[in-house]
Design brief:
The protein has 13 helices and no strands. It has 299 residues and is mainly α. Among the domains are: 56 residues, no CATH class; 60 residues; 56 residues, no CATH class. Helix 8 packs across helix 9, helix 9 packs antiparallel against helix 10 and helix 11 runs antiparallel to helix 12. It is elongated.
Length: 299
């Protein structure tokens, strides 16, 4: 029908007249964009023929007045034409959601998630149970294998960042404590360890990882035992040696140097030599990083 109409209208105008063919068309279609944009009658009718073919393959979209059956038919026709489309699931239907998650890449069982390979910087210990424990959460929330790996890696990276900051702070704190205690550092650390192992072993596993504030607190406890004269506790926690920290050594050194009646200043005093040795020893403890001229002090 359309082909014969095409022949009829094309035959009724002079092919040299580029616009005469439009005058043969019904008035109802003369203002169509397809007519206005066509360069000639031949191209117009070819376009109409193509449009007719396309209409045969098109799917009409139901309006809001369509019933359930019509909507279902439309859905089935659309899915048959475009199999890659995915229906919006009913989020309240567990069975539907389970199928949806599986289509999105979730394993059939939680144990089928494969944990990614993780590496930690030197000095950082990773929680190896994290990836395994997270499988329950990943499966419950419908994560695919790729999503599961991504979350585990991101969470681990975040945890490592926090741990690195804590490690740096711990190392800096112990470094400052070493400077504060000077030659007494190993002694005080040993005292702190003795207190930890005897009284706080269930709370603090390793004195070297406890941190400077805790080490100082435990050493203070050991010193308190000594000042109270608890002989058994002294032997168990601080032993018999007593190396002074730089701050205490400075205080004692200043006491001697400011006391002009001290044996250190009186050459004729029988205790002068011992006093000089004491000043030399206190000076070394008070200034552990200083190249002290002990002979000058003795003179």
């Amino acid at each position: 029908m359309m082909f014969h109409m095409k022949q009829k209208y094309c035959a009724e105008f002079d092919e040299d007249d580029a616009t005469a063919w439009k005058n043969t068309l019904p008035d109802a279609i003369k203002d169509w964009d397809e007519v206005k944009n066509a360069k000639d009658g031949e191209s117009f009718w070819n376009q109409m023929s193509n449009m007719r073919s396309m209409m045969g393959q098109s799917i009409r979209i139901p309006t809001e007045d369509a019933g359930a059956d019509a909507l279902k038919e439309f859905d089935e026709r659309l899915m048959s034409k475009v199999p890659s489309l995915m229906r919006k699931p009913d989020f309240e239907d567990d069975a539907v959601m389970a199928s949806f998650y599986q289509q999105m890449g979730r394993p059939e069982e939680k144990d089928k998630y494969v944990a990614p390979e993780l590496k930690a910087p030197e000095g950082i210990v990773l929680d190896e149970t994290l990836a395994g424990n997270f499988k329950d959460i990943a499966f419950k929330n419908g994560l695919s294998q790729k999503q599961y790996e991504g979350v585990v890696k991101d969470y681990t990276a975040s945890s490592v960042g926090v741990a690195e900051g804590q490690l740096e702070a711990h190392q800096q704190g112990m470094k400052e404590l070493s400077t504060e205690w000077g030659a007494a550092f190993e002694q005080n650390l040993g005292r702190a360890e003795a207190v930890r192992s005897k009284y706080f072993g269930d709370v603090v596993e390793d004195i070297n990882l406890a941190g400077a504030p805790i080490v100082k607190a435990f050493n203070s406890i050991a010193e308190k035992f000594g000042k109270e004269g608890s002989s058994n506790l002294i032997e168990e926690t601080i032993g018999r040696s007593n190396v002074l920290a730089p701050a205490e050594a400075k205080e004692r050194l200043n006491e001697i140097l400011s006391n002009k009646d001290h044996a250190y200043w009186v050459a004729q005093d029988p205790s002068h030599k011992d006093a000089v040795d004491k000043v030399v020893s206190l000076t070394k403890l008070a200034h552990p990083n200083m190249n002290t001229d002990t002979e000058k002090l003795r003179a």
